Amino acid sequence: MYVYRQLSERAVAATPAGIAAEFGITPAAARDALRALHDAHLVVLDPGGEQIVMAHPWAAVPLGFVVASSTQKWWGGCAWDSFAIPMLAGESCLIATHCRGCGEPIALDAGPGEWSGPTNSQIVAHLPVPVLRMWDDVVATCDSQRLFCHEGHLADWLARTGTGRGAVLDLDQLWRLATGWYAGRLTAGYRRRTPAEAAEFFASISLTGEFWRTQ
């Protein structure tokens, strides 16, 4: 919880030295604790196993999204992650990024409750990597989950880059995915869903099919 709180409240990534001081343990024990979180897919460490790169939905490095509240600014890990941050912050936020197809800026206001952004927007999110493969290279997966001005820009970009078409979500679907997936992230006792629980959640918001298969 300390790791998530540091990012949520201060927009900084916890370090082995900071964890050691906070909990009265050695830096070596703090590094071991971070590596255990990494192995459990609760944080993502750099190749050296020392620094936090991501503690979903927050990122400690720029990955294409900035989320800003009235008092704080964060890097979002991807489209999926960024749409969860207003809910966890408990206030309206501005989500800023660029269309991956044309490069034009995209800025959306999102509140902490029900989706409060535009309901007639043509903006779509593209998730190219299926759920079962997302953790093969999770940083690359997050970097690939982007917004497009509309389906036409997505189609052009897919053709231009040779990228396969993955899951395409409208803003309301993306909001329901993000806020439901990360609900409870900052509460004591939070744990990752099992594959069966993840599949049940996806199905509950009408995300089914091979892309969303969890096992």
Could you explain how this protein is built, in words?
The protein is of the alpha+beta class and 215 residues long. Helix content is 36%, strand content 18%. It contains 9 helices and 10 strands. It has helices at 2-10, 16-23, 27-39, 79-82, 85-89, 138-144, 151-161, 171-181, 195-204; strands at residues 44-45, 52-55, 58-59, 65-68, 73-76, 93-98, 105-110, 124-127, 146-148, 167-170. The strands form 2 sheets. Strands 1-2-3-5-4-6-7 form a 7-stranded antiparallel sheet. A hairpin with a 2-residue loop joins strand 2 and strand 3. The radius of gyration is 17 Å and the shape is globular.
Element order: H for helix, E for strand: HHHEEEEEHHEEEHEHEHH
Give the strand line-up of the largest sheet.
Answer: 1-2-3-5-4-6-7
Described by strand count, sense and barrel closure, the largest sheet is: 7 strands, antiparallel
Question: Could you tell me the mean pLDDT?
Answer: 93
Helical percent range? Answer: 25-40%
Question: C-alpha Rg, in Å?
Answer: 17 Å
Tags for this entry?
36% helix, alpha+beta, 215 residues
Give the SSE layout.
Blueprint (H helix, E strand, L loop, with lengths): L1 H9 L5 H8 L3 H13 L4 E2 L6 E4 L2 E2 L5 E4 L4 E4 L2 H4 L2 H5 L3 E6 L6 E6 L13 E4 L10 H7 L1 E3 L2 H11 L5 E4 H11 L13 H10 L11
Antiparallel strand pairs: 1-2, 2-3, 3-5, 4-5, 4-6, 6-7, 8-9, 8-10
Helix pairs in contact: 2-3
